[in-house]
Write a structure and sequence with these properties.
Length: 193
């Protein structure tokens, strides 16, 4: 249910998500599994657009890796790769990606000049704003199996923020912005710090 009407361009409140359509698990390969949940019911779920749970593993001995890469290239599949998502555009919403503790990395590159591999315990917040191109690939190695598990949430921006400049920030382990601890006092108030 949407919260109270907020002034244009300000923070909105979502009181609850009573239900959501469940999309079947996407077919995957190479040890992968993606479970997306789309919030398509317009104002009832706004600002939530998509929640996806990715769980992938890659073994260097997997005989399908090389043929799949070659087939994807030959067929001109621009957005999907066996080990991630090639360069593609987004605009007008935020993408929050959280890599679970213990996971290998997720490699990011974007049209803003950013390039980074972030691992378990780290989140990426990407404001797509007026538009950004980016690619995301699972970290793979030739000497051992790699495992990556993450959640990704897409949040619609208010109309007054949709053309904001795009930006990418990181929070968590191995960043300049560590996770902040939340503590509750006797009155039920909380302090972040």
């Amino acid at each position: 249910r949407p919260g109270p009407k907020a002034p244009e361009g300000s923070v909105r409140t979502v009181l609850s998500v009573d239900s959501h359509p469940v999309i079947p698990v996407w077919p995957t390969w190479g040890g992968g599994r993606v479970v997306p949940v789309s919030f398509e019911d317009g104002p009832h779920h706004d600002p939530l657009l998509l929640l996806a749970h990715h769980k992938h593993w890659f073994d260097p001995r997997d005989p399908l890796r090389a043929p799949f890469r070659a087939a994807g290239s030959a067929l001109g599949l621009p957005y999907v790769d066996v080990e991630g998502f090639s360069m593609h555009p987004h605009r007008g919403f935020d993408i929050l990606t959280y890599v679970l503790d213990g996971s290998d990395g997720f490699r990011h590159r974007d049209s803003l000049g950013g390039s980074r591999t972030y691992r378990g315990g780290t989140a990426q917040w990407m404001r797509t704003g007026s538009g950004v191109l980016h690619e995301e690939f699972w970290e793979t190695r030739d000497d051992r199996r790699t495992d990556v598990e993450l959640f990704q949430l897409w949040v619609n921006l208010p109309s007054g923020m949709k053309l904001d400049p795009p930006a990418v920030r990181y929070v968590g382990k191995d960043t300049d912005h560590p996770w902040l601890e939340t503590q509750y006092d006797r009155d039920g108030d909380y302090n972040i710090g």
